[in-house]
Design goal:
Layout lengths: L2 H17 L8 H10 L2 H8 L5 H28 L3 E7 L6 E7 L5 E9 L5 E4 L2 E4 L2 E2 L5 H14 L3 E9 L7 E3 L2 E5 L3 H8 L9 H11 L1 E2 L5
Parallel strand pairs: 3-7, 7-9
Antiparallel strand pairs: 1-2, 1-10, 2-3, 4-5, 5-6, 8-9
Helix pairs in contact: 1-3, 2-4
Length: 223
Amino acid sequence: MTTLTLVLVAVAAAAWYVQQQRRPGAGASAAAEARRLRTPLIRLADLMGIRTAAGQRARRFATGAIGEKATARLLRTLARQGWVILHDLQLPTGQTNLDHLAIAPSGRVFLIDTKLWTGDHDVHLRGSRLFHGNLDVDDRLDGLRRGTRTVANLLRCPVHPVAAMHQAPVRRDGLSVGNIRIVPADALCARLRAMSRHADHFSSQAEIAARATRLLLPYGTSR
């Protein structure tokens, strides 16, 4: 190996070690997957300008983590107004993560999925399916659909799915794809407040929050 290559290998290995340290909070699972994929060899390839499938996947997960952190910052406004906000939760199976759970003072529960898509194309409906420009992206809501059903069963109350859209333009009042509401990220808090005015079940916010914290642990937490 040349001296430059050895230096690059050392830098990639050091960066990988530092990145492996788990950081809990919004975007933790996406960031962890990006770190897992960015092995020293993949980092070396990136440094040398070599594109790899693992490197591209790592970049997508890293982008997802950035979006989740941005949504978490927006939700701080609701937390200051008495909402219970939980980030990056794992289902009991431990195989799926939930981006954000928001429990309103009224007791209404919202499962929020962050989407950070390129702003080059708008997000719209064609019939009952979701499109990003000319690309059918309806299946990208499947995780939110499954998560909503599972969380509703666990918490024993209705759960309202919401997708917070960053960058990609979407009409200001949002879109509905089945029971999923898609809203511009900068309108997220206003839309959640509007949708949460009345309770739709008999459990209090405190009761729902207690169930959520017991059954939906932070990502990476062992039972």
